[in-house]
């Protein structure tokens, strides 16, 4: 056991040096990146097959008009957008051109976790290739899914370098008339920490403990892009938080927006929101109506405290350091502008849809489990902390949870973190519904695959295990936490 104060003090010196450099960089180059149109290549399925070649590479990438030494899929950040439909077969010939192992995870898709499909245990060494092939079930919901690397130990580093792309399933939500009429935009949110040369800054121990963040906020690889609302005045925004650790608290300045879909697909009806909190890994679809005045709405990222910082700041303060030296936006106090929506038409003529897609009512569960998420002060090499589920750090040879195929279970996710740091919980392959938060029922029913569990909170989720047996994982989607051990294996037995 190591004393927390000792650990913090040990890591403070390097935290301050690294962050002073990054602040100087930001001040000298107020806005060194210019906005540049960048549309990732689109691959659509045809004749029931989505077929493409995908390779990782570490070539320099143009990020907002400047060279950045990121990692890309087919040289792009964000990665190419893939689009398929329920019933399609997906075949991806994947080549790893990195100098470290990697693999692919199809985040949120309800497909098999075994073989060359959404298998988090696959390892693709440098210079090797693998062909992924799986079929999307005929009854798969339409929605906003995504893909990113999932090789344990490298996930945060590779995602922070830019490896992430959208995987869209087209279907029933797209066919609703009002939705069809809306203009569709995809917004992939990524943050980067670059040095003067455009290389990614390496995180120190504290960044890893908190989860690494960068000061450069991008939307589709652009800085503060503008989206126009077409005539008719209805805009459909499809958000993905592809940052490894950053939370986005999104709001449209002086304007409401309407939630129509969450991670796993459509809601039963639009829900008006003043703001939308997107934890790492989460997606959401919003509708925006263009009104006569104002003709421009800024998309803001409001300050959000994801916990754990007070303790850090106290410790830093005692050192005479001061919290403002932290790397990344952890001490963000002002709203940041992510993008601007401009409206040209005379007035909004398109109505909002009244009804979307009914969301299934799940039967009462036979089994209720408790999963404790915790960050403990224990000596693990390099961190001084351990990140666990029910006190156990990830072990690829241990099954943490056994479930039976074709059963419904409730899991109580309990964040027992004494420092009250948020953990977004993600389960592969099996989407779920949130039943309650600290005993309070959720205001509306929705399909999720990643759910925020705040410090001290208990979130109850209901999971139908169906269609696919085999081993898969659940983990914290602050990807440094996952790499440091906050991941468990669930085995679904037929
Ligand atoms: Cu998006 Cu297991 O992750
Ligand atoms: Cu976490």
Tell me what you see in this structure:
This is Oxidoreductase. GO terms for molecular function: copper ion binding; oxidoreductase activity. The two termini are 41 Å apart. The protein has three domains: 42-170, Immunoglobulin-like, CATH 2.60.40.420; 179-343, Cupredoxins -  blue copper proteins (Immunoglobulin-like, Sandwich); 367-493, Cupredoxins -  blue copper proteins (Immunoglobulin-like). Mean pLDDT is 86; it is low at 1-37 and 317-329. It has seven helices and 34 strands. Helix content is 12%, strand content 39%. The longest helix is centred in the first third of the chain and has 25 residues, at 4-28. The protein is mainly β and 494 residues long. Strands 23, 24, 26, 28, 29, 30 and 32 form a seven-stranded mixed β-sheet that branches. A six-stranded mixed β-sheet has the order 13-12-15-20-17-18. Strands 1-6-11-10-8 form a five-stranded mixed β-sheet. 47% of the residues are buried. Copper (II) ion (CU) is lined by residues 423, 476, 478, 481, 486.
């Amino acid at each position: 056991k190591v004393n927390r104060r000792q650990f913090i003090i040990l890591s403070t010196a390097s935290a301050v040096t690294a962050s002073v450099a990054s602040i100087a960089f930001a001040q000298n180059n107020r806005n060194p990146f210019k906005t540049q149109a960048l549309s990732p290549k689109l691959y659509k399925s045809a004749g029931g097959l989505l077929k493409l070649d995908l390779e990782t590479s570490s070539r320099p990438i143009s990020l907002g008009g400047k060279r950045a030494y990121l990692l890309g899929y087919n040289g792009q950040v964000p990665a190419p957008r893939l689009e398929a439909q329920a019933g399609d077969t997906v075949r991806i010939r994947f080549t790893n051109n990195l100098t470290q192992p990697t693999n692919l995870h199809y985040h949120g898709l309800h497909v098999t976790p075994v073989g060359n499909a959404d298998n988090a245990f696959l390892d693709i060494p440098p210079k090797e290739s693998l062909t992924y092939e799986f079929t999307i079930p005929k009854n798969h919901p339409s929605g906003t899914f995504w893909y990113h690397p999932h090789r344990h130990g490298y996930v945060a580093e590779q995602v922070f370098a830019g490896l992430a792309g959208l995987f869209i399933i087209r279907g029933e939500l797209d066919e609703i008339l009002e939705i069809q009429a809306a203009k569709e935009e995809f917004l992939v949110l990524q943050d980067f920490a670059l040095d003067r040369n455009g290389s990614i800054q390496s995180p120190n121990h504290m960044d890893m403990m908190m989860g690494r963040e960068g000061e450069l906020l991008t939307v589709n690889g652009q800085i503060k892009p503008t989206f126009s609302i077409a005539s008719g005045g209805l805009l459909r925004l499809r958000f993905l938080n592809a940052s490894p650790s950053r939370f986005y608290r999104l709001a449209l300045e002086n304007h409401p927006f309407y939630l129509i879909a969450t991670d796993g697909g459509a809601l039963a009806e639009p829900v008006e929101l003043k703001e939308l909190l997107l934890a790492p890994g989460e997606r959401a679809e919003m509708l925006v109506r263009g009104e006569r005045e104002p003709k421009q709405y800024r998309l803001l990222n409001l300050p959000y405290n994801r916990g754990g910082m007070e303790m850090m700041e106290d410790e830093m303060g005692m050192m005479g350091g001061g919290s403002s030296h932290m790397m990344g936006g952890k001490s963000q106090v002002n709203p940041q502008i992510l993008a601007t929506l401009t409206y040209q038409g005379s007035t909004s003529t398109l109505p909002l849809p009244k009804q979307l897609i009914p969301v299934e009512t799940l039967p009462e569960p036979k089994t209720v489990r408790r999963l404790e998420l915790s960050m403990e002060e224990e000596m693990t090499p390099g961190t001084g902390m351990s990140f666990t589920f029910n006190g156990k750090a990830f072990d690829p040879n241990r099954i943490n949870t056994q479930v039976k195929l074709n059963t419904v279970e409730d899991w109580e996710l309990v964040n027992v973190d004494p420092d009250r740091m948020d953990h977004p919980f993600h389960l592969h392959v099996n989407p779920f519904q949130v039943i309650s938060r600290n005993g309070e029922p959720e205001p509306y029913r929705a399909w999720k695959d990643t759910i925020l569990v705040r410090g001290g909170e208990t979130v109850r989720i209901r999971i139908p295990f169906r269609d696919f047996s085999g081993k898969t994982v659940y983990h914290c989607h602050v990807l440094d936490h996952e790499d440091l051990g906050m991941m468990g294996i669930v085995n679904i037995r037929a």
